[in-house]
Design brief:
heterodimer, A: 494 residues, Serine Threonine Protein Phosphatase 5, Tetratricopeptide repeat, two-stranded antiparallel sheet, 6 strands, B: Maltoporin, Chain A, 3 domains
Chain lengths: 494, 963
């Protein structure tokens, strides 16, 4: 393919692999979509990921009537759900694109195309990043769908039926891929912004190990801690002001380990943070404060999350900032925006109050923080509490209190060693990482996503909440792929 | 010497005198007409003059004056429809010799009134041909479907050939409809090739039928005739969406909304739908000059149309010109046919968003507000900025948007048909043609308006140019034997299509970029074809036709590039057999059998078989470090993609009683399309997309067509013809994937009310685009119970798996009925057409009729009156309550005309006509129109009623001068 004759193009194709996480296609903010058959904006990677990770949990609920969306609010989805299909196809789109890139940029292909030795060196780094992105998507597949079709660069483009893999094989594959590419990836914090470095790969490995009991029934907390420690040793710094992490200029933060970049003019989409900023605004909320013209009146949170904070106006805990005026705490009618408190988190203004770069459209500049240091702190504490060796309870307490000091602005929110337990960690993760697409995985790891141990409003489809069956810890494979690929077997329960 | 000639003209059959017969001295403009007693007097110039007697409905007759002073003539009526000549691909045939299924409509039978687009001329006229209006906007015309179309996702548009030049059917920017450029006044006939034995000569583009349009030409030996026609029309909207009025709305808001919302209610009573619509005027003026200058027949015409739409600001202006020259040279050895047409259309497109907004806007609010944005009352935030989610003031929407497009287009061809000297019966035909267009336009949104408020207004220009070149060459050989005739045709055709799409950034008034310019594209494709046809006629009774075409299309990989499309047909003129020949009652009876394979290459994409990378525009770059990179994306591809193949079988009977008193056709067809191009999900991970356009599956299509024309009465004073046609059409998807067939299928038919929602499905075993909905449960009072649906799989929960298929948008039955009557100088006609067995989804009602519309903070939405029945709190988009029977009968037009004859003994003839179009519609459907064509993107199969531009009722008055 001619594109690979000219090394200048290698980075442009790599940029597409990254952009696949952000935008919907080759035309902004919509048009020439990457995947079709689904609403373009709604089927972007981060927006789909966010919905599957947040809507069936206590953290979020959405008003909209889009086909299948209300069933995410209430954990009543079926295998026909178009949002579950959107995420699935986004994941495999990324994997297919990465496979193509990895195949075309193999050492032998680069050599036969006359790419210079120096460029081949750079090409190998690019290829490692493509493998990271593929591992990231396979990780999402592992976490959400479990038993998925498996394709690598060895399989070409064409008509065939990929074999189905299971969680343990996929776990092993992701693990080996990440370990294999780490030496090639650029050192932590040394790569260009928004590109993956060693720390991104360590983080993904750490998440893989932290959830290993869910994925493969094995205790790998010590492995998790090994990689957590490597990140902690590489110089990331907590952002001074919590709120700055979610603003139009959040790319300036030293806390971000891996983020998905958006821009109001150059990287435009109706997904990603444009969705997160706009969908969360409605009612009597001040649009200026969010740097957008309107607001899409969609997302609120449920009362269980509000109750985790000492206040609702961002004091004393800066992480608990809600819009309560003309909103009710309880949600009797899901489709009315003013039922449920609105969350004030993602904004399209800079830290000095300037609006994002788009001239008057909905599109925002805010980047999506996929991996950040605060999460590493929380993972450290959790791994230690779960018995990992290589860390200490005292250090864990120190990290937690660092987060709380940032939130409170002083030490008044600090906790004592006795308060540090796993239940606290789950709640603290909600307080710190609310609306960052972590909640479903967290609740599953803590055994509270399904079952009836922990109920929240509308869990299971009733106002007061009810039991959800355990098979819902995995999403179903979309009906469309079961039809297209006879090798696939549906996940249990669907 | 000026011999005076007089005489009487009579009807051959009845012997009655014929009034108003034209009597003309050939080659001059000198003439007269017969009086009420059929008598005429004319002063000839010399004894060599030839008098030509002509009258509509009769065969003309020429008589040399010689030394006669009394010339009595009898004219024979020309109802002998079997002698009519029908245009078929690459030639013409006598109707009696046809073996295929061909429907023809000529000038005399065209629909009348304000006809802007050619396809409207034949709506309701031909069995198996449906013309569904695309809406009421000027120039939007109709969608033509011949026998229901053969494809799911590729185009279902027929191939349109104008004077031998096949068009590229893709949408032209800046115009509402691809046929919009052709002035209907320049058209002589439509010949519609329906079955494969007729269409297969067009091979890979023929699966959806072929429409051959022949434009008007001068005739040999004809004196110069000038014709001036002028038509003035007045259009108005007949039906609006049934919404609550201001008083009803206030009552409902008081009862249903919380106090904060109820406080938003206003004090006015505005009928928004009356505000946005207007009584629209249009003028259509045409001048033509035709005749023959010595051996050069010519026709020159110019036309000017200025049509306003019923939606305020909608306007179309079309200036068209056409020239045709068709001389016969070298002792009639060389027939030349030269046509050039040029047109400039200037459109202003009204903001059709206003249609939905007018239905939804609060009727208690005023139109104007001096404090409002741009002078209009709008829903505002407390800080005075417009609310983004609230409906916009419909008049504000219309006035804020200035969307104009201009298209220049020219199509022409030069056809040379030469009788080769060395072999009798051998002719060579060369046809060179072109079709070029250039369009440009821009959409401006006023900065001082609610819709332009946040972006600071916007300017979005666009441009496009297209070029389509054609070269055909064929040899035609005809050999007469004692009892039989053989005609052979072999030919070659090449056609090249090129489109240029420059792109522009969308800027605001300040000059900031709102949307970056897209990536420039310059798609091009080419078709090369070889074709042949053999016709053999034995004893004028047994007719055989075989055709073959080999098509090469650049859209496919070299291995699949060529497709071969054969056809075979036979016909038996039973009436020529001895046992029928003698009878005078059944004067024609012909049995036709046809089989053929056609293809479809109009698949939207230009290089679907090649691995390609496309670059992103500047608004989807990605930053790595500090640099934004335009990304390169590999495209999904199917290297094996190939033609869709449609196999058609046709059985037809043509019959005629009493020499044309009653005649018609009867056809049964069965079509099967294999290697159907459909967008299907690929196994995840195997291609560079999730859905691929590929050859998969099959669709079956069968139908019955009946056409009938009956001359009720025919005397010199009174003539009355009625015609009718009926079609029964049934499409079934027989396969959709390479694997399982029991799935739900492919969801299609996007609707409004939430993002990404669809209402239709393609499922194996069902009609395409079947509505896919929940079965509503009704209370004892017959009122739907909100949110209660039948649990089809009885699993205790209502979810996607409980949806059922309920009807489809394509009519199972459609029919047309027309009548034309002439009494002396008066004529009177009407055309009625209808559909039955089709359903429509009332998306206007489903997306608006719930009290939820009163609960969005800060604004109120008006509700359809249907809310008073349903009392739904939340929208029930998928309830089958909104799937409604959309069968209808529409009175397409009623017209009356009067022929004044020659004015004051001058040479000027005058006739006048008055027409009403869209007179009435009888239907149970509750929305604005039961007949909903798909959107312009053609992704939907139609039948989704969502803010449809209403079809106006049009009153027209026309005058026609000839001399």
């Amino acid at each position: 393919i001619q594109v690979y004759e000219d090394f200048d193009n290698y980075k442009s194709v790599l940029a597409k692999l990254y952009a696949g996480l952000a935008v919907s296609g080759q035309q902004g903010p919509a048009g020439k979509p990457d995947i079709s058959g689904l609403d373009e904006g709604a089927s972007t990677y981060i927006r789909a990921l966010w919905k599957l990770q947040e809507l069936p949990t206590d953290e979020a609920i959405i008003t909209w009537n889009d086909e299948g969306l209300p069933r995410l609010n209430t954990s009543e989805w079926t295998s026909d759900n178009s949002f579950i299909a959107a995420m699935y196809y986004r994941i495999f789109y990324q994997i297919s694109l990465a496979n193509e890139y990895i195949r075309e940029t193999s050492d032998s292909n680069m050599a036969s195309r006359g790419i210079s030795e120096a460029d081949q060196q750079t090409g190998r780094i690019f290829r490692a990043e493509a493998r990271f992105l593929r591992a990231l998507s396979y990780y999402h597949a592992l976490d959400m769908y479990g038993n998925v079709p498996f394709v690598t660069e060895e399989d070409g483009v064409g008509a065939y039926f990929p074999e189905q893999t299971d969680r343990s094989s996929l776990f092993a594959y992701i693990e080996s891929e990440l370990i294999d590419i780490i030496p090639t990836l650029i050192d932590a914090r040394q790569n260009e912004y928004a590109r993956a470095d060693k720390a991104a790969a360590w983080m993904l490995l750490a998440k893989l190990y932290l959830n290993a009991e869910v994925y493969i029934g094995e205790d790998r907390y010590t492995d998790a801690l090994t990689y957590i420690n490597q990140i902690l040793a590489s110089g990331f710094m907590l952002e001074g002001n919590y709120n700055h992490l979610f603003l139009a200029d959040n790319h300036l933060s030293e806390e971000l380990i891996f983020s998905v970049a958006f821009d109001g003019v150059n990287t435009t989409t109706y997904g990603g943070t444009t969705f997160l900023v706009n969908a969360a605004v409605g009612g009597t909320m001040n649009r200026e404060e969010f740097g957008i013209p309107g607001g899409w009146q969609g997302l609120r949170t449920r009362p269980e999350i509000v109750a985790l904070y000492p206040g609702t106006d961002g004091t004393p805990d800066a992480r608990g900032s809600f819009h309560t005026e003309d909103q009710t705490l309880d949600i009797e009618n899901i489709s009315i925006f003013q039922e449920g408190y609105a969350v004030k988190k993602y904004k399209n203004v800079t830290r000095d109050g300037q609006r994002g770069s788009s001239p008057g459209t909905d599109i925002v500049d805010t980047d999506f923080p996929m991996f950040r240091l605060a999460d590493v702190y929380l993972m450290y504490a959790e791994a230690v509490l779960r018995g990992a060796t290589g860390g200490s309870q005292a250090q864990a307490l120190g990290y937690i209190n660092e987060l709380r000091q940032r939130a409170y602005g002083n030490a008044t929110g600090n906790i004592a060693a006795a308060d540090l337990n796993l239940d606290f960690i789950l709640d603290e993760r909600a307080r710190e990482l609310k609306w960052e697409a972590q909640r479903r995985t967290d609740l599953i790891r803590f055994g509270k996503f399904t079952g009836e141990e922990y109920l929240w409003q509308w869990k299971g489809g009733v106002y007061e909440g009810r039991k959800v069956e355990s098979f819902r810890r995995l999403y179903p494979l979309p009906t469309a792929d079961l039809t297209a690929n006879p090798n696939l077997k549906q996940n249990d329960g669907y | 010497q000026a011999p005076s000639v007089s005489g009487t003209v009579t009807d051959t059959d009845s012997g009655d005198p014929l009034p108003f017969v034209n009597v003309l001295i050939k080659g001059t403009t000198k003439g007269t007409t017969t009086d009420f007693d059929g008598k005429y007097t004319i002063n000839a110039n010399s004894s060599e003059d030839i008098l030509v007697f002509s009258f509509i409905g009769y065969n003309p007759k020429s008589v040399v004056v010689g030394n006669q002073s009394i010339i009595n003539v009898s004219l024979e009526s020309d109802t002998k429809q079997l002698d009519e000549v029908v245009v078929v691909g690459y030639g013409t045939q006598r109707k009696a010799d046809l073996t295929g299924s061909v429907g023809s409509v000529d000038r005399d039978d065209f629909n009348v009134g304000q006809v802007t687009n050619p396809e409207q001329l034949i709506a309701g006229k031909v069995a198996g041909v449906q013309v569904t209006p695309n809406g009421g906007a000027p120039g939007s015309g109709g969608r033509i479907r011949i026998r229901g179309g053969a494809s799911l996702n590729a185009s279902n548009d027929p191939l349109i050939v104008i004077d031998g030049v096949p068009l590229d059917n893709s949408k032209t920017s800046g115009t509402a409809n691809p046929l919009n450029f052709l002035n209907p006044n320049d058209i002589e006939t439509f010949d519609i090739l329906k079955d494969a034995s007729a269409t297969a000569i067009y091979g890979s583009r023929a699966s959806n039928g072929v429409v051959l349009i022949t434009t008007r030409k001068g005739k040999e030996g004809q004196a110069m005739k000038v014709n001036v026609s002028s038509l003035m029309s007045v259009s108005s909207v007949t039906k609006k969406v049934d919404m609550l009025n201001a008083d009803q709305f206030k009552e409902i808001v008081d009862a249903q909304a919380i106090p904060a919302q109820a406080a938003l209610i206003g004090t006015d009573a505005t009928d928004w739908q009356s505000e946005i619509y207007q009584t629209a005027l249009s003028y259509d003026n045409n001048v033509s000059i035709s005749g023959a200058h010595k051996a050069l027949p010519y026709r020159l015409s110019v036309g000017y149309l200025n049509q306003d739409g019923v939606l305020k600001t909608d306007n179309l202006q079309r200036t068209s010109g056409s020239l045709s020259l068709n001389p016969n040279l070298f002792q009639d050895k060389l027939h030349v046919n030269f046509n050039v047409k040029g047109v400039i259309t200037k459109s202003r497109f009204a903001n059709q968003d206003a249609i939905g907004a007018a239905a939804a806007f609060d009727p208690t609010q005023p139109v104007y507000d001096t404090e409002g944005i741009g002078g209009y009352w709008e829903w505002l935030n407390t800080d005075g900025t417009p609310q983004t989610l609230a409906p916009r003031n419909p008049m504000g929407l219309i006035m804020a948007k200035d969307d104009r497009g201009e298209v220049k287009r020219s199509i022409g061809n030069l056809q040379l048909d030469y009788e080769l000297p060395f072999l009798e019966g051998l002719k060579a035909n060369l046809n060179l043609g072109y079709d070029v267009s250039s369009s440009n336009g821009r959409t401006i949104i006023d900065a001082n308006s609610a819709s332009g408020y946040y972006e600071g207004g916007s300017v979005a220009p666009y441009e496009q140019s297209k070029r389509n070149l054609l070269a055909d060459f064929y040899l035609n050989y005809v050999k007469e034997y004692k009892d039989s005739r053989l005609s052979l045709l072999v030919g070659y055709s090449a056609q090249d299509f090129l489109t240029r799409n420059p792109t522009f950034a969308r800027l605001n008034i300040e000059g900031d970029t709102l949307a970056a310019a897209g990536v420039v594209s310059r798609p091009q494709y080419r078709l090369i074809s070889y074709f042949g046809r053999a016709n053999y006629t034995l004893k004028d009774k047994y007719l055989f036709t075989a055709t073959i075409r080999a098509d090469g299309s650049s859209r496919f990989a070299p291995d699949n590039r060529w497709g071969v499309f054969p056809s075979l047909a036979a016909a038996w003129r039973i009436s020529e057999e001895d046992f029928l020949k003698a009878n005078d009652f059944l004067t024609d009876l012909k049995l036709r059998l046809g089989y053929g394979v056609t293809g479809q290459q109009d698949i939207g994409s230009y290089f679907p078989y090649l691995p390609r990378y496309i670059t992103s525009d500047n608004a989807t770059r990605y930053s790595l470090g500090v640099t934004y990179y335009n990304t390169l994306r590999p495209e999904g591809y199917d290297e094996n993609i190939k033609w869709e193949e449609t196999t058609t079988y046709n059985v037809g009977i043509d019959y005629e009683f009493l020499d044309g008193k009653l005649y018609g056709t009867f056809d049964y067809y069965y079509k099967k399309t294999d290697d159907l191009l459909a967008v299907i999900p690929v196994p995840a991970g195997t291609n560079l997309t999730n859905q691929l356009f590929t050859n998969v599956g099959s669709i079956e299509n069968q139908g019955l067509e009946i056409g009938l024309t009956f001359n009720v009465i025919k005397t010199t004073d009174f003539n009355w013809d009625i015609g009718g046609n009926y079609t029964n059409s049934r499409n079934t998807i027989t396969s959709l994937s390479n694997v399982e067939e029991d799935g739900v299928g492919i969801l299609v038919g996007g609707i409004s009310g939430g993002t990404g929602n669809t209402i239709q499905v393609h499922t194996v075993g069902y009609q395409p685009n079947s509505f896919y909905v929940y079965e509503q449960v009704y209370g004892e009072n017959g009122v739907p119970i909100e949110g209660v649906y039948v649990d089809q799989n009885e699993d205790g929960i209502i979810n996607e798996q409980d949806r059922v298929r309920n009807g489809f948008p394509d009519a199972r039955h459609y029919f047309g009925f027309n009548s034309s009557m002439r009494y002396k100088n008066w004529n009177f006609g009407f055309v009625l057409r209808g559909n039955a067995g089709n359903k429509a989804y009332n998306n206007v009602s489903s997306s608006k009729a719930a009290y939820q519309g009163l609960k969005f903070p800060g604004y109120l939405n008006n509700l359809p009156s249907d809310i008073l029945t349903t009392n739904f709190q939340n929208y029930q988009l998928r309830s089958d309550y909104y799937i409604q029977d959309a069968s209808f009968v529409r009175m397409e037009n009623i017209s009356v005309g009067y022929d004044f004859g020659n004015l004051f003994d001058s040479k000027i003839r005058l006739s006048a006509s008055a027409t009403v179009q869209n007179v009435f519609v009888i239907t149970n459907y509750e929305g604005v129109s039961p007949e909903i064509a798909p959107g312009t993107d053609d992704a939907t199969g139609g039948g989704i009623d969502n803010n449809f531009y209403p079809l106006p009722r049009i009153f027209s008055f026309g005058l026609n001068f000839g001399f």
